[in-house]
Amino acid sequence: MPPYGSSTLPTLQAPSRIEQSVSDLLANRRDDLVELAATLVGFDTRASTHGEVGGDEPALQALLADRLRAAGFAVDLFEPRVDDLPASPMFPAGLDLDGRPQLIARAIGRGDGRSLLFNGHVDVVSVEPRSAWATDPFRARVRDGLLVGRGACDMKGGVAAMVLAAEALAELEVPLSGDLLVNTVTDEESTGAGTLACIARGLRADGCLVPEPTSGQVWLGARGALLAEVEVHGRAGHTGLARGDELDGPGVGAIEAMGPVLAAVRQLREEWWRSSALGESPGWIVPTHIVGGEWIVTHPESCRVQLHVTFSAEQADAGCWGGPVRSEIEERIRVAAQADPWLASHPPIVRWSAEVPAATVDAGDPIVSTALASAAALGHDAGIAARTTWLDAASLTRAGTPAIGFGPGDVEAAHSVDESVDIDELVTAAQLLAVTAMRFCGVEGEPARA
Fold first, then answer.
1. Domain check: are 80 and 202 in the same one?
2. Which of 166, 313, 357, 450 qualifies as a cystine partner to 373, CB 3.0-4.6 A?
3. How far apart are alpha carbons 25 and 55 in whole angstroms?
């Protein structure tokens, strides 16, 4: 396996005549690409979390369905029923997909070449703190060569690139030997249910590209993720009557009692990061939301903190789930509580909710080598990146479709205020997606490529 973050020196095959024609067409369609990405940003498709749900997913999916039909794709636009999905730790209680359509479009190949899937999600995260945005998050704008707006980077820019790539191949009537599929889904930011619904409907391919913001590098897979809530109880009482030893006083503050828990979590996180045994992409724990207290003159009776936990494949169990990580975190919190005078007799309560598994593709898989070779042919210095987040590629890989992240934008811009993606990267991504499709699926009448 090549080292993370390095070039893999694939065999260089210069672009063929038809590959160059498609790349040139996409370079000339720069304005069209920006317009489509900006249009997608304009749809409010916020994920269904924290009571903040964008209602524009059906309209966005209908727009893409119309474009792909016009390009000659057979389109399946469907609204899944939760009862049709397989049981999974990924789904929280009360999962509801009503009004959340998924799209699968297929162009049938002209021979017996390999099939390739483009997969992308259309949901986005919350825009809060909205007041910090320079302009409306759902009104994209161009600034200094960047497209700015919620989802521009994660990942409506990537979705626009894959749709334009598919349209360019259709417009030039490139005779792909294998099928090309374009799949846009909801719920990646919350549950992963959209892609799992498509898999349950029969979505399969020999390889998949997910144009998440990977800075044009290849992500072989994804770390898994766990969501936890830790609850600590104090003793309500009047804060104005405090004595020297609070444990014998009128009240015990749950917010302060949470301190040993947070310290234990931070220490474990630092140990994971320092441990060379966990490879290049260790797990991470971040407290993301905290609630505590009932009244400003009352010792808080309760405090709850939510944790977002990621874990590497090396930390997972044999099925790539996070059972060992859950146990490690619970034990670390238990030990910290036993050392605290209050928590020893009032132990924290740890609750786990949704989980997504880790998954990875072998560096020698054809989808990896083809993507890297296509990038080299177009003069793009791609390598295999160490840093990854979770993406729907994990679900596809686990279901038998080797899937990699390979797209435009820097993941550090994702979920941020004034989120943005470089427009030059959008064009390059569309070209890379198209050329990889030609090389992976094969082109009738041309010699086999990488």
1. yes
2. 450
3. 34
Q: Hey, is 195 helix, strand or coil?
A: helix
For residues 237 and 217, membership in a common domain is answered with no
The stretches of 380-449 forming alpha helices (DSSP H) are 393-398, 423-441
- Find the domain containing 303 and state its range: 224-356
| Catalytically annotated residues | 123, 188
Residue 187's region, left for phi above 0, alpha for psi from -120 to 50, else beta, is left
The arrangement of strands across the sheet holding 420-422 comes to 141-143, 146-148, 420-422
Please tell me the distance from the alpha carbon of residue 315 to that of residue 318, in angstroms, as a whole number.
Answer: 10
367 and 352 together in one domain: no
Instruction: State how many domains the chain has.
Output: 2
CB-CB contact of 91 with 182 (8 Å): no
pLDDT in tens, 216-274: 999 998 889 999 999 999 999 998 886 666 677 789 999 999 999 999 999 999 999 88
Alpha-carbon span 348 to 145, nearest angstrom: 50
Same domain, 398 and 323: no
CATH number of the domain residue 147 falls in: 3.40.630.10
On whether the CB atoms of residues 409 and 243 are closer than 8 A, the answer is no
Pairing mode of beta strands 116-121, 180-185? parallel
Closest CA to 316 of 385, 229, 414, 398: 398
- Kindly provide the residue ranges of all beta strands, DSSP E only, lying in 84-125, ordered along the sequence: 102-107, 116-121
pTM of this prediction? 0.87
Assigned token pair, 232: 């600590």
Using CB atoms within 10 A of its CB, is residue 438 exposed (0-12), middle (13-18) or buried (19+)?
buried
